[in-house]
Sequence to fold (350 residues):
Amino acid sequence: MDSFMPVFCGIVPPHLLDKLARAGDPAVAAAARRTLVADAAHRTGRRLTTVVGAPAPAQAVEEGPQRTVYDAQHRTVLPGTKVRSEGGEPVRDATVNRAYAGLGATFELLLTAYGHDSIDGGGLPLDATVHYDENYGNAFWNGEQMVFGDGDGEIFLDFTVAVDVIAHELAHGFTQHSANLTYFGQPGALNESVSDVFGSLVKQYTLDQTADEADWLIGAGLLAPQVSGVALRSMKAPGTAYDDDVLGKDPQPATMDDYVRTGRDNGGVHINSGIPNHAFHLLATQLGGKAWERAGQIWYDTMTSGKLQVDASFTDFAKETVAAAAARYGQGTEHEAVVKAWSQVGVVTG
Fold:
Protein backbone atom coordinates (compact mmCIF):
# COMPACT_ATOMS: atom_id res chain seq x y z
CA MET A 1 0.00 0.00 0.00
CA ASP A 2 1.28 3.46 -0.87
CA SER A 3 1.72 5.93 1.96
CA PHE A 4 -1.59 7.51 2.92
CA MET A 5 -2.31 11.11 2.09
CA PRO A 6 -4.75 12.04 4.87
CA VAL A 7 -6.55 15.29 4.23
CA PHE A 8 -9.02 17.46 6.09
CA CYS A 9 -12.41 16.61 4.57
CA GLY A 10 -15.34 18.63 5.90
CA ILE A 11 -18.96 17.96 4.87
CA VAL A 12 -19.70 21.69 4.53
CA PRO A 13 -17.67 23.17 1.66
CA PRO A 14 -15.55 26.31 2.16
CA HIS A 15 -17.57 28.29 -0.40
CA LEU A 16 -20.67 27.91 1.79
CA LEU A 17 -18.84 28.98 4.94
CA ASP A 18 -17.32 31.94 3.07
CA LYS A 19 -20.83 33.03 2.11
CA LEU A 20 -22.08 32.67 5.68
CA ALA A 21 -19.09 34.62 7.04
CA ARG A 22 -20.44 37.64 5.13
CA ALA A 23 -24.01 37.19 6.37
CA GLY A 24 -25.94 40.18 7.72
CA ASP A 25 -26.77 38.33 10.93
CA PRO A 26 -23.74 38.85 13.24
CA ALA A 27 -24.30 35.53 15.04
CA VAL A 28 -24.37 33.55 11.77
CA ALA A 29 -21.30 35.38 10.44
CA ALA A 30 -19.35 34.89 13.68
CA ALA A 31 -20.10 31.15 13.80
CA ALA A 32 -19.03 30.74 10.16
CA ARG A 33 -15.80 32.69 10.70
CA ARG A 34 -14.99 30.60 13.78
CA THR A 35 -15.59 27.43 11.74
CA LEU A 36 -13.39 28.67 8.88
CA VAL A 37 -10.53 29.46 11.27
CA ALA A 38 -10.77 26.00 12.87
CA ASP A 39 -10.92 24.31 9.45
CA ALA A 40 -7.86 26.23 8.22
CA ALA A 41 -5.89 25.00 11.23
CA HIS A 42 -6.92 21.40 10.52
CA ARG A 43 -5.88 21.69 6.88
CA THR A 44 -2.42 22.80 7.99
CA GLY A 45 -2.29 19.85 10.37
CA ARG A 46 -3.17 17.44 7.58
CA ARG A 47 -0.40 18.81 5.35
CA LEU A 48 2.09 18.30 8.17
CA THR A 49 0.89 14.73 8.58
CA THR A 50 1.49 14.02 4.90
CA VAL A 51 5.10 15.13 5.42
CA VAL A 52 5.91 13.38 8.71
CA GLY A 53 3.48 10.48 8.32
CA ALA A 54 0.39 9.60 10.32
CA PRO A 55 0.73 7.40 13.40
CA ALA A 56 0.04 3.73 12.77
CA PRO A 57 -3.57 3.00 13.81
CA ALA A 58 -4.27 0.37 16.44
CA GLN A 59 -5.77 -2.75 14.89
CA ALA A 60 -8.85 -4.40 16.29
CA VAL A 61 -8.40 -7.78 17.93
CA GLU A 62 -12.11 -8.57 18.22
CA GLU A 63 -14.67 -9.11 15.50
CA GLY A 64 -17.30 -6.48 14.85
CA PRO A 65 -17.05 -2.71 15.09
CA GLN A 66 -14.77 -1.20 17.72
CA ARG A 67 -16.43 2.16 18.37
CA THR A 68 -15.43 4.85 20.84
CA VAL A 69 -17.24 8.18 21.13
CA TYR A 70 -15.62 11.14 22.87
CA ASP A 71 -17.02 14.48 24.03
CA ALA A 72 -14.90 17.57 23.27
CA GLN A 73 -17.14 19.57 25.65
CA HIS A 74 -17.11 22.51 23.22
CA ARG A 75 -13.34 22.69 23.22
CA THR A 76 -10.98 21.85 20.35
CA VAL A 77 -8.65 19.33 21.98
CA LEU A 78 -9.05 15.90 20.35
CA PRO A 79 -10.23 13.33 21.06
CA GLY A 80 -11.80 14.66 24.30
CA THR A 81 -13.42 12.71 27.14
CA LYS A 82 -14.48 9.12 26.43
CA VAL A 83 -18.25 8.86 26.88
CA ARG A 84 -19.28 5.61 25.15
CA SER A 85 -17.30 2.52 24.18
CA GLU A 86 -18.15 -0.52 22.08
CA GLY A 87 -20.97 -2.51 23.64
CA GLY A 88 -21.73 0.21 26.18
CA GLU A 89 -25.30 1.15 27.02
CA PRO A 90 -26.85 4.26 25.41
CA VAL A 91 -26.13 7.43 27.33
CA ARG A 92 -28.39 10.41 28.06
CA ASP A 93 -26.75 12.50 25.33
CA ALA A 94 -28.61 11.81 22.04
CA THR A 95 -25.71 13.23 20.01
CA VAL A 96 -23.36 10.60 21.43
CA ASN A 97 -25.85 7.83 20.66
CA ARG A 98 -26.42 9.03 17.10
CA ALA A 99 -22.68 9.13 16.42
CA TYR A 100 -22.29 5.62 17.87
CA ALA A 101 -25.18 4.31 15.73
CA GLY A 102 -23.86 6.01 12.58
CA LEU A 103 -20.43 4.46 13.01
CA GLY A 104 -22.12 1.09 13.38
CA ALA A 105 -24.36 1.54 10.35
CA THR A 106 -21.35 2.36 8.15
CA PHE A 107 -19.39 -0.62 9.49
CA GLU A 108 -22.41 -2.89 8.86
CA LEU A 109 -22.93 -1.85 5.25
CA LEU A 110 -19.24 -2.28 4.35
CA LEU A 111 -19.08 -5.71 6.00
CA THR A 112 -22.48 -7.07 4.95
CA ALA A 113 -22.55 -5.82 1.37
CA TYR A 114 -18.85 -6.06 0.47
CA GLY A 115 -17.11 -8.20 3.09
CA HIS A 116 -14.97 -5.16 3.98
CA ASP A 117 -13.97 -5.14 7.66
CA SER A 118 -14.23 -1.50 8.83
CA ILE A 119 -13.02 1.36 6.66
CA ASP A 120 -9.55 -0.09 6.06
CA GLY A 121 -10.61 -3.69 5.46
CA GLY A 122 -8.60 -4.76 8.51
CA GLY A 123 -10.92 -3.97 11.42
CA LEU A 124 -9.75 -0.41 12.08
CA PRO A 125 -11.29 0.95 15.32
CA LEU A 126 -13.76 3.77 14.67
CA ASP A 127 -13.39 6.88 16.82
CA ALA A 128 -15.63 9.92 16.86
CA THR A 129 -15.68 13.18 18.82
CA VAL A 130 -18.91 15.15 19.34
CA HIS A 131 -19.62 18.65 20.68
CA TYR A 132 -16.51 20.03 19.01
CA ASP A 133 -15.86 23.74 19.62
CA GLU A 134 -18.67 26.31 20.04
CA ASN A 135 -21.25 26.77 17.27
CA TYR A 136 -18.96 24.76 14.98
CA GLY A 137 -20.65 24.39 11.60
CA ASN A 138 -19.01 21.30 10.16
CA ALA A 139 -18.18 17.61 10.52
CA PHE A 140 -14.91 16.18 9.31
CA TRP A 141 -12.56 13.22 8.95
CA ASN A 142 -9.03 14.26 9.92
CA GLY A 143 -7.18 11.19 8.68
CA GLU A 144 -7.57 9.36 11.97
CA GLN A 145 -11.04 10.02 13.40
CA MET A 146 -14.46 11.62 12.97
CA VAL A 147 -15.34 15.01 14.48
CA PHE A 148 -18.81 16.59 14.73
CA GLY A 149 -19.87 20.13 15.52
CA ASP A 150 -23.23 21.09 17.00
CA GLY A 151 -23.96 23.74 14.38
CA ASP A 152 -25.05 27.25 15.21
CA GLY A 153 -28.79 26.50 15.35
CA GLU A 154 -29.42 29.30 12.84
CA ILE A 155 -28.14 27.66 9.66
CA PHE A 156 -26.88 24.22 10.68
CA LEU A 157 -28.25 21.83 13.30
CA ASP A 158 -26.32 19.07 15.08
CA PHE A 159 -24.12 17.28 12.53
CA THR A 160 -24.99 13.82 13.87
CA VAL A 161 -28.67 14.16 12.86
CA ALA A 162 -28.01 12.81 9.35
CA VAL A 163 -26.56 9.29 9.17
CA ASP A 164 -25.32 9.96 5.63
CA VAL A 165 -23.14 12.80 6.97
CA ILE A 166 -21.55 10.37 9.43
CA ALA A 167 -21.07 7.77 6.70
CA HIS A 168 -19.79 10.41 4.24
CA GLU A 169 -16.97 11.34 6.59
CA LEU A 170 -16.09 7.73 7.39
CA ALA A 171 -16.03 7.03 3.64
CA HIS A 172 -13.16 9.53 3.36
CA GLY A 173 -11.29 7.05 5.56
CA PHE A 174 -12.31 4.21 3.22
CA THR A 175 -10.94 6.21 0.26
CA GLN A 176 -7.76 7.05 2.19
CA HIS A 177 -7.14 3.32 2.76
CA SER A 178 -8.08 2.19 -0.77
CA ALA A 179 -7.64 4.37 -3.87
CA ASN A 180 -6.25 7.32 -1.83
CA LEU A 181 -7.52 9.86 -4.36
CA THR A 182 -5.67 13.19 -4.33
CA TYR A 183 -7.80 15.95 -2.77
CA PHE A 184 -7.65 18.44 -5.63
CA GLY A 185 -9.43 18.98 -8.95
CA GLN A 186 -11.13 15.97 -10.53
CA PRO A 187 -9.59 13.30 -8.26
CA GLY A 188 -10.64 15.48 -5.31
CA ALA A 189 -14.18 15.74 -6.68
CA LEU A 190 -14.19 11.94 -7.07
CA ASN A 191 -12.98 11.67 -3.46
CA GLU A 192 -15.95 13.79 -2.35
CA SER A 193 -18.36 11.94 -4.64
CA VAL A 194 -17.33 8.52 -3.34
CA SER A 195 -18.11 9.79 0.17
CA ASP A 196 -21.52 11.01 -0.98
CA VAL A 197 -22.18 7.69 -2.73
CA PHE A 198 -21.38 5.55 0.30
CA GLY A 199 -23.02 8.06 2.63
CA SER A 200 -26.23 7.73 0.64
CA LEU A 201 -25.90 3.93 0.47
CA VAL A 202 -25.57 3.69 4.26
CA LYS A 203 -28.70 5.81 4.66
CA GLN A 204 -30.61 3.69 2.13
CA TYR A 205 -29.37 0.47 3.76
CA THR A 206 -30.43 1.71 7.21
CA LEU A 207 -33.90 2.61 5.89
CA ASP A 208 -34.08 -0.52 3.67
CA GLN A 209 -34.93 1.63 0.65
CA THR A 210 -34.75 0.83 -3.05
CA ALA A 211 -33.02 3.26 -5.41
CA ASP A 212 -36.42 4.60 -6.44
CA GLU A 213 -37.57 5.12 -2.84
CA ALA A 214 -34.43 6.98 -1.75
CA ASP A 215 -34.31 10.80 -1.69
CA TRP A 216 -30.63 10.89 -2.81
CA LEU A 217 -30.07 13.96 -0.63
CA ILE A 218 -26.86 14.45 1.36
CA GLY A 219 -27.45 16.01 4.77
CA ALA A 220 -31.24 16.14 4.77
CA GLY A 221 -32.33 17.44 8.18
CA LEU A 222 -29.06 19.30 8.72
CA LEU A 223 -30.31 22.73 7.64
CA ALA A 224 -32.26 24.75 10.21
CA PRO A 225 -36.01 25.20 9.54
CA GLN A 226 -35.67 28.84 8.43
CA VAL A 227 -33.19 27.96 5.64
CA SER A 228 -34.64 27.68 2.13
CA GLY A 229 -33.23 24.28 1.23
CA VAL A 230 -33.57 20.55 1.80
CA ALA A 231 -29.95 19.39 2.15
CA LEU A 232 -26.30 20.17 1.38
CA ARG A 233 -26.35 18.33 -1.95
CA SER A 234 -28.68 16.36 -4.22
CA MET A 235 -27.32 13.41 -6.18
CA LYS A 236 -30.58 13.12 -8.10
CA ALA A 237 -30.64 16.77 -9.18
CA PRO A 238 -27.31 18.51 -8.44
CA GLY A 239 -27.73 22.26 -8.10
CA THR A 240 -31.17 22.08 -6.44
CA ALA A 241 -30.37 21.30 -2.77
CA TYR A 242 -30.77 24.90 -1.54
CA ASP A 243 -31.53 28.39 -2.80
CA ASP A 244 -31.37 30.69 0.19
CA ASP A 245 -30.87 34.41 0.80
CA VAL A 246 -28.03 33.69 3.24
CA LEU A 247 -26.57 30.45 1.87
CA GLY A 248 -26.89 31.41 -1.78
CA LYS A 249 -27.74 28.88 -4.49
CA ASP A 250 -26.41 25.34 -4.74
CA PRO A 251 -23.58 25.59 -7.35
CA GLN A 252 -23.26 21.91 -8.25
CA PRO A 253 -23.33 20.94 -11.95
CA ALA A 254 -25.08 17.74 -13.05
CA THR A 255 -23.13 17.27 -16.30
CA MET A 256 -19.77 18.18 -17.86
CA ASP A 257 -21.52 20.96 -19.83
CA ASP A 258 -21.57 23.00 -16.62
CA TYR A 259 -18.22 21.88 -15.16
CA VAL A 260 -16.89 24.63 -12.87
CA ARG A 261 -13.26 25.71 -13.23
CA THR A 262 -12.11 27.37 -10.01
CA GLY A 263 -9.06 27.60 -7.79
CA ARG A 264 -11.21 27.71 -4.66
CA ASP A 265 -12.30 24.69 -2.64
CA ASN A 266 -9.22 22.68 -3.77
CA GLY A 267 -10.26 23.16 -7.37
CA GLY A 268 -13.99 22.79 -6.75
CA VAL A 269 -13.99 19.36 -5.10
CA HIS A 270 -17.37 19.91 -3.41
CA ILE A 271 -18.85 21.49 -6.54
CA ASN A 272 -17.89 19.23 -9.45
CA SER A 273 -18.58 16.13 -7.36
CA GLY A 274 -22.15 16.67 -8.55
CA ILE A 275 -21.21 15.12 -11.91
CA PRO A 276 -20.04 11.67 -10.71
CA ASN A 277 -22.78 11.81 -8.05
CA HIS A 278 -25.37 12.21 -10.79
CA ALA A 279 -23.80 9.38 -12.81
CA PHE A 280 -24.10 7.04 -9.84
CA HIS A 281 -27.72 8.03 -9.25
CA LEU A 282 -28.54 7.40 -12.92
CA LEU A 283 -26.86 3.99 -12.75
CA ALA A 284 -28.57 2.97 -9.51
CA THR A 285 -32.06 4.01 -10.64
CA GLN A 286 -31.60 2.40 -14.05
CA LEU A 287 -30.62 -0.90 -12.45
CA GLY A 288 -33.33 -0.59 -9.80
CA GLY A 289 -33.59 -2.53 -6.58
CA LYS A 290 -31.20 -1.87 -3.70
CA ALA A 291 -28.50 0.57 -4.84
CA TRP A 292 -25.80 -0.93 -2.59
CA GLU A 293 -26.11 -4.28 -4.37
CA ARG A 294 -25.08 -3.85 -8.01
CA ALA A 295 -24.35 -0.12 -8.46
CA GLY A 296 -22.57 0.08 -5.09
CA GLN A 297 -20.68 -3.15 -5.79
CA ILE A 298 -19.28 -1.69 -9.02
CA TRP A 299 -18.09 1.45 -7.20
CA TYR A 300 -16.64 -0.64 -4.38
CA ASP A 301 -14.81 -2.89 -6.85
CA THR A 302 -13.41 0.18 -8.62
CA MET A 303 -12.12 1.72 -5.39
CA THR A 304 -10.47 -1.50 -4.17
CA SER A 305 -9.15 -2.85 -7.50
CA GLY A 306 -5.70 -1.33 -7.10
CA LYS A 307 -5.95 -0.08 -10.69
CA LEU A 308 -7.15 3.45 -9.91
CA GLN A 309 -4.38 6.05 -9.87
CA VAL A 310 -4.35 8.65 -7.07
CA ASP A 311 -4.73 11.43 -9.66
CA ALA A 312 -7.56 9.75 -11.59
CA SER A 313 -9.70 12.04 -13.77
CA PHE A 314 -13.45 11.58 -14.24
CA THR A 315 -12.71 9.71 -17.48
CA ASP A 316 -10.15 7.46 -15.75
CA PHE A 317 -12.61 6.64 -13.00
CA ALA A 318 -15.47 6.08 -15.43
CA LYS A 319 -13.38 3.65 -17.51
CA GLU A 320 -12.49 1.70 -14.38
CA THR A 321 -16.17 1.42 -13.38
CA VAL A 322 -16.96 0.08 -16.86
CA ALA A 323 -14.15 -2.46 -16.51
CA ALA A 324 -15.32 -3.38 -12.98
CA ALA A 325 -18.89 -3.93 -14.21
CA ALA A 326 -17.66 -6.18 -17.02
CA ALA A 327 -15.37 -8.13 -14.70
CA ARG A 328 -18.14 -8.90 -12.21
CA TYR A 329 -21.26 -9.05 -14.35
CA GLY A 330 -20.07 -9.59 -17.93
CA GLN A 331 -21.17 -7.51 -20.93
CA GLY A 332 -24.84 -7.42 -19.93
CA THR A 333 -27.29 -5.07 -18.26
CA GLU A 334 -24.93 -3.69 -15.62
CA HIS A 335 -22.14 -2.94 -18.10
CA GLU A 336 -24.53 -1.16 -20.47
CA ALA A 337 -26.06 0.83 -17.60
CA VAL A 338 -22.65 2.09 -16.43
CA VAL A 339 -21.68 3.21 -19.95
CA LYS A 340 -25.04 4.94 -20.37
CA ALA A 341 -24.89 6.72 -17.00
CA TRP A 342 -21.49 8.26 -17.72
CA SER A 343 -22.61 9.21 -21.22
CA GLN A 344 -25.64 11.02 -19.79
CA VAL A 345 -23.39 13.26 -17.67
CA GLY A 346 -20.94 13.86 -20.54
CA VAL A 347 -18.00 11.77 -19.31
CA VAL A 348 -16.28 9.69 -22.00
CA THR A 349 -15.72 5.97 -21.28
CA GLY A 350 -14.78 4.70 -24.78
Remarks:
- Confidence is low (pLDDT under 50) at residues 1-5, 46-60.
- The beta strands are 9-10, 67-71, 81-85, 126-130, 139-141, 146-148, 217-218, 233-234, 243-244, 248-249.
